[in-house]
Specification:
Strand content: 15-25%
Oligomer: single chain
CATH architecture of the largest domain: 2-Layer Sandwich
Length: 351
C-alpha cells in the first residue's frame, strides 16, 4: 500500500487568467506530486481556452461550484486581489488548503480574517511570494546566515516589470485602488523578500512617488539597517545590493548572485541587467525553464510538502499580513508627502 504522503495532491484553480497561463500551469506540469483536478473562471473565454488542453480538468463557472468538486484537497486563488479574501475564506471553510497570489489582501483586516480562518480550519494557507524560491535569493539567504547581522550596513533593491505587454484578462493591473498599482504589485514583492532575507520587518517606513511614471521610492528601517527600494511598472529590471561593514557588496539579480566587482555604479548596474536579459534569452532559445518558471515550480513543491508535513520556506499568513501592513504604511506616507509612518506589528494566530 502506498504512503498517502506520496500520492498526488488534487488541486483546483480559482482564476485561470494570465498568471495561471504563463507561470502556474507550466509549473504544475513539472510537479509530479500535483494532479490538476478542477478550474473555474467567471470569464467564459478562459474556460473555452482551458477546454482545449490535452487533459482538461473539470471546469466550473463559479468558485462555489468548484469548491464542491469531489476529491479536491487544495486550491490556488489567482483572481484579482479585491476578491482574494472571499475566495480564500470560502475555500478554507470548505476544508481545503490554499495558495493565494500576492498581495494576500488589500486591507489588513481582511488579511487577519484569512489568517484566522486558516487557523480555525486547521488548513495550510500560503501566500504566493514566488521570489523566495529564486535560486540567487535562496543562496543569498544562506550567505547572510554566515554573516553577523550587525555587519550589514545598507540594502538597495530595484525592481520593475512591465504591465502593458501582460495582456491581462481583467482590468485591475495598473489601478492602485484595485491592488494593481506599483505598491501592491511590485513593492510587496520587495518588502516580503527583504523581510525574509533579514528575518525581521521594519518599525517604520517612508515612501514617495517618483516623477510622472508612477514609480515609487521607499525606505524601510529594519533595526540598524536602512533598506531603499525603487519600484516601477517599466522595462524589466531586478537588482538587490547588500553592503557589508568590511566593504564587500553582495549583489543578487533575477538570475545571478555574487560579490560586486570594481567599476562605476552605472556600469555595474548595466552589467547586472544585461546578464539577466542574456540568461532569459538563452533559456528561451534552448527551451529550458527560466528563473521565473523554476521559482513557481519550487513554490508549488514547497506548498505540497507543507501540506504533507514538511517544513516550508513559503510566506505564511503572518508574512502576508506583514507585507499588507508595510504597503499600507507606504501608501499613507505617499499621501503625507514622504513622512515616516509606523508599521503596525503583526503576529501569527496562536496555536
Amino acid at each position: 500500500m502506498r504512503d498517502p504522503a506520496s500520492l498526488p495532491l488534487h488541486l483546483g484553480v480559482i482564476g485561470c487568467g494570465r498568471v495561471f497561463e504563463r507561470f502556474h500551469l507550466p509549473a504544475i506540469v513539472r510537479v509530479p506530486t500535483i494532479s490538476l483536478l478542477a478550474g473555474c473562471d467567471t470569464n467564459r473565454s478562459r474556460l473555452a481556452w482551458a477546454e482545449h488542453w490535452s487533459s482538461p480538468p473539470a471546469l466550473f463557472d463559479t468558485p462555489a461550484e468548484l469548491l464542491g468538486c469531489p476529491g479536491l484537497e487544495a486550491v490556488l486563488v489567482l483572481t484579482p486581489p479585491a476578491s482574494h479574501a472571499l475566495n480564500v475564506i470560502q475555500a478554507l471553510e470548505a476544508g481545503l488548503h490554499v495558495l493565494v497570489e500576492k498581495p494576500m489582501a488589500l486591507d489588513p483586516g481582511e488579511a487577519r480574517q484569512m489568517a484566522e480562518a486558516a487557523h480555525l480550519a486547521r488548513r495550510h494557507l500560503q501566500v504566493g511570494f514566488s521570489r523566495r524560491f529564486r535560486e540567487p535569493y535562496q543562496k543569498l539567504r544562506k550567505a547572510l546566515q554566515r554573516e553577523d547581522p550587525l555587519r550589514l550596513r545598507r540594502v538597495r533593491f530595484e525592481l520593475a516589470f512591465p504591465v502593458a505587454s501582460w495582456n491581462a484578462e481583467s482590468d485591475f493591473l495598473g489601478k492602485e485602488s484595485h491592488g494593481g498599482g506599483v505598491l501592491d504589485d511590485v513593492l510587496s514583492h520587495q518588502v516580503d523578500l527583504v523581510c525574509w532575507l533579514l528575518k525581521g520587518g521594519p518599525d517604520r517606513v517612508r515612501c514617495e512617488v517618483k516623477g510622472s511614471s508612477g514609480g515609487v521610492s521607499a525606505e524601510l528601517e529594519i533595526g540598524s539597517v536602512m533598506v531603499h527600494c525603487e519600484s516601477a511598472h517599466a522595462r524589466y529590471a531586478e537588482r538587490l545590493r547588500m553592503e557589508l561593514a568590511d566593504g564587500r557588496v553582495l549583489e543578487a539579480s533575477g538570475s545571478h548572485l555574487g560579490e560586486a566587482g570594481s567599476g562605476f555604479e552605472r556600469w555595474r548596474r548595466g552589467r547586472a541587467l544585461l546578464l539577466d536579459r542574456v540568461s532569459l534569452l538563452g533559456h528561451r532559445l534552448l527551451k529550458r525553464p527560466n528563473v521565473s518558471l523554476r521559482s513557481f515550480e519550487g513554490q508549488l513543491r514547497d506548498f505540497v510538502g507543507a501540506i504533507r508535513g514538511a517544513s516550508s520556506q513559503g510566506a505564511t499568513p503572518g508574512d502576508g499580513l506583514q507585507a499588507v501592513e508595510i504597503v499600507r504604511a507606504c501608501r499613507a506616507s505617499v499621501r503625507q508627502e514622504g513622512a515616516w509612518q509606523a508599521v503596525r506589528a503583526t503576529a501569527e494566530p496562536a496555536e
